[in-house]
Amino acid sequence: MTPFGSLARAMLKGFFRDRMALFFSILFPLMFLVLFGGIFTDQGASKAEIIQVGPVAVLDDVPKDARAYVDESLDITRSSDLAAAVVKVRKGDADAVISQDGDTLSVRFSQADQVKAGQVQGTFAAIVQSANLAVTGQAPKFSLTTARVEDKSLSTIQFFTPGLLGWAIASGATFGAAANLVVWRRNGLLRRLRLAPIPTSAVVLARVAVSIAIALVQAVIFLAVGMVLFGLKLTGSWPMIVPLLVAGTLAFMSIGLLAGSIAKTEEAAIGMANFVVLPMAFLSGSFFPLDGAPRWISAVGTVLPLKHLNDGMLDTMVRGEGPAAALLPVAFLLVFAVVVSAIASRVFRWDD
Amino acid sequence: MGVGITADGLVMAYDDVRAVDGVSFTVAPGEFFGLLGPNGAGKTTTLEMIEGLRKPQSGSVRIDGHEPWRREPELQRRMGVQLQSSSFFDRLTAREQLDTFGALYRVAAGRTDEMLEQFGLVDKADLRTEDLSGGQKQRLSIACALIHDPDVVFLDEPTAALDPQARRNLWDVLRTINDSGRTVVLTTHYMDEAEALCDRVAIMDAGRILELDTPAALVRGLDAPVRISLAPGTLSLEDARAVAGADEVAAGESALTITTRDPSRVLTELASRDALDGLSVKGASLEDVFLELTGREYRA
After folding, report:
1. Chain A partners of B103 at a C-beta cutoff of 8 Å?
2. Closest chain B C-alpha to A180 CA, distance in angstroms
3. Of A87, A131, B119, B294, which has fewest CB within 10 angstroms of its CB?
4. Residue A30 sits in which domain range?
5. Which residues of chain A make contact with B79, given a CB cutoff of 8 A?
């Protein structure tokens, strides 16, 4: 076996025998995937719970064809006690109270759940409009059709799988490189390898190869769980995630090498890596979309490698874009890796 | 087999401390050479310059004509190195460590079994290094240094932190390394170790070599008296004082001690008086030389 091959094998064995490393780079992110998958799977289909107090003409006399629409979005129960019903809404046990006073329809809702508040108001506004139209006896002039722009198969799992996978890759590569460097420096193995008749590049390349292999294992497990358990569907040029993962691994390894070069102990290195990776995951939209975030947050995101990895994976894995969408993120990640590795090599030490 | 080493005027200073301050010596091919000194004497730094881990700030090192800091693979293939700490790959078994180090030197796979056999680790082969005892770890570490059958071996405090039994056991191993004609350079702060193993010893303190000779010559040069002890009651105090060659006589509870610089004459005399009961002779050891040279005050 070549020196490169034997070093890579030794590092891989070391990783797969390290239960903590396995847990944090594979099982822990996977727990988030299962958790998010469970929470958000039927979010779009959930009905608003309505308490109807007294007779409400527009609901009771709704025409047959509109009945289906009402049943689909509203879950109506009846009550005769208006005050008790309002208390229920305030406590969050119901989403709105509906009652009719003369010709005025009255909707009482809670602002605590903004999505439901909007849903309830929109639904009843539409019901009142169509009831008004029906009274005039005129045929509707305008009609509405809706269609969403994403693939028909799109569900929420599509959106957060790339982000969580990106976070898992970032953790694995950063922590792996940082811990490896510190442990080997402290136990003298770096110096020992320096006295072996092998080029330094063999050691570095072995670590790179191992980190990339681990990233690919993470990706395969993630995609498999997403597809089997939550109906994840890969679209368009999804194989482009391979170059994205390779470039991303290099970028995160460079962060790990920098942390491992500065840190004196393994604990310090892990702490430093955590300090970088966790905020980066939030600011890169790994856990939730940043569409509504202030502008400065997206500005910070543009210099973070994970943001580019996440965008590239979203574009090619689930948004159905062509392979070209991965080029810019890959280029950014590679440049980032080169710059940070250069800084790391300036502070690198063979021994304590 | 066996290569010569020349160190000439080595200097290494950190900030304003001269850790190594003009160290020169030569090691002959096949010699077992010891660097002896208290902690912080500069032994390890000297060894690191010889191994090629550090480039001397001034002075030069030649191993068989090569400058080790250039890290030429041809030279490195002939060098075996055991560092102070147990430098192992994490979570690998003893066998896997040997396989991995062997591959770095491109040795045939069968070497691992030979080394496990030679170092008494056959039944520990599948234990991870974290689960080995201190002595087993050190044996494995030396086995890893010898996996490629090097001509010169560097050992940095190989028996530090071992219990007495494990130390003796390791000494036997170390002697066999040198038996096959290899050059061995060892650092230690144990006097008995240097005395038991080394052909020649350099005694270092504060970055300099204070003395360099064979252990026997160093002890002889000390001109220290020999203490001869007898069981109490074997000889009366007056009779003992009358023994020719006795410099000083002291009677203690457990023994009567005669101090002399002429032990053979005193022993002949004692034999003629048939007074050899419970006799023991204690000459000066390398420890006495060491303490004489480096002082007795405690150093942290």
Report:
1. 1-3, 5-6
2. 9
3. A87
4. 3-40+155-347
5. 195
Pick the closest to residue B19 from B183, B208, B220 (CA basis).
Answer: B208
Cβ atoms of B7 and B26 closer than 8 Å: yes
Torsion angle, alpha carbons of A181, A182, A188, A190, to 10: 20
Contact A193/B104, CB-based, under 8 Å? yes
Listed residues A74, A105, A136: the one ending a domain: A136
- φ and ψ of A145, to 5 deg: -125, 150
Whether residue A220 sits in one domain with residue A121: no
Taking alpha carbons only, the member of B173, B163, B194, B158 closest to residue B287 is: B194
**A42 pLDDT tier (thresholds 50, 70, 90):** low
Helices (H), A137-199: 156-186, 189-194
User: Between residues A274 and A131, which one has the greater pLDDT?
Assistant: A274
B33 and chain A: CB distance < 8 Å anywhere?
no
Residue A144 domain flag: no
Domains in chain B (CATH in brackets) are: 5-220 (3.40.50.300), 225-283 (3.30.70)
Q: Do A302 and A230 sit in the same domain of this protein?
A: yes
- Residues A69, A27 share a domain: no
ipTM given for this complex? 0.84
Tell me, yes or no, whether A193 and A309 share the same domain.
yes
Total Cβ atoms within 10 A of residue A266: 17
Q: Which residue of B has its CA nearest to A2?
A: B103
Domain total of chain A: 2
Chain B environment of A11 (Cβ under 8 Å) = 89
Chain A residues with CB-CB distance to B89 below 8 A: 10-11, 14, 189
Amino acid sitting at position A262: I
The Cα angle at residue A235 between residues A230 and A239, in degrees rounded to 5: 105
Interface test with A, best of B71, B90, B95 (most A CBs within 10 A): B90
List the one residue out of B93, B100, B109, B140 whose CA is nearest residue A7: B100
